[in-house]
Each structure stands twice: as C-alpha cells, then as structure tokens.
Structure to design on (97 residues):
C-alpha cells in the first residue's frame, strides 16, 4: 500500500514539474545529450528507484548544467529519498534558470 502511495506521489511530482516547466516563459537549455538520461531517470523514479534515478540525474547535471528539468528531477529524486534540504536546493536551482 505504501509503495502505491509513493508511486502516486512520484507521478504527481513529475506531472507538476512538467507543468511548471512547460508554462515557464524562460527558454531552457535543452541538450540532446541529456534527453536519454532524463527519460531513464523518469522511468526509474516512476518505478520507485529514486537512488538509481538520482545517480543518472547527477550525470545529466554534469552534461547539461543549465537545464532546469534536470534539477527539477533531481529535486524529486531527493524528495523520494527524504533528503529535503537537498531537494529544496535542487528546486531552487531549477527555478533560477
């Protein structure tokens, strides 16, 4: 039961993050190099694998350091791990672009 609730929370977080990124008037850096990593991270998060997703996202931050979606996903991964200070920092970085 707890796993279902966590999965719903992750899906909601991904949807909210996607909404805010799509609604933002700022043009975000988008690199083809990061797209596969971000897709993999989203799949891992949806599957409940936050630690593995975090590792993939951290690799994406090294390739695409100016990509807001990367930091938004990193915040979600940290939230899932209950690392709230790190999550807050990642969300703030995402919103700074």
């Amino acid at each position: 039961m707890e796993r279902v609730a966590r999965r719903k929370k992750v899906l909601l977080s991904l949807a909210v993050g996607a909404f805010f990124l799509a609604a933002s008037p700022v043009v975000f850096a988008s690199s083809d190099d990061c797209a596969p990593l971000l897709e993999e991270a989203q799949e891992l998060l949806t599957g409940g694998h936050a630690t593995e997703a975090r590792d993939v996202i951290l690799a994406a931050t090294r390739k695409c350091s100016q990509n807001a979606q990367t930091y938004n996903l990193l915040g979600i991964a940290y939230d899932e791990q209950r690392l709230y200070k790190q999550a807050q920092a990642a969300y703030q970085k995402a919103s700074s672009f």
Notes: The CA atoms of residues 54 and 85 lie 15 Å apart. The chain is about 75% helix and 0% strand. Confidence is low (pLDDT under 50) at residues 21-29. The helical segments are 2-23, 35-46, 50-63, 68-80, 84-95.
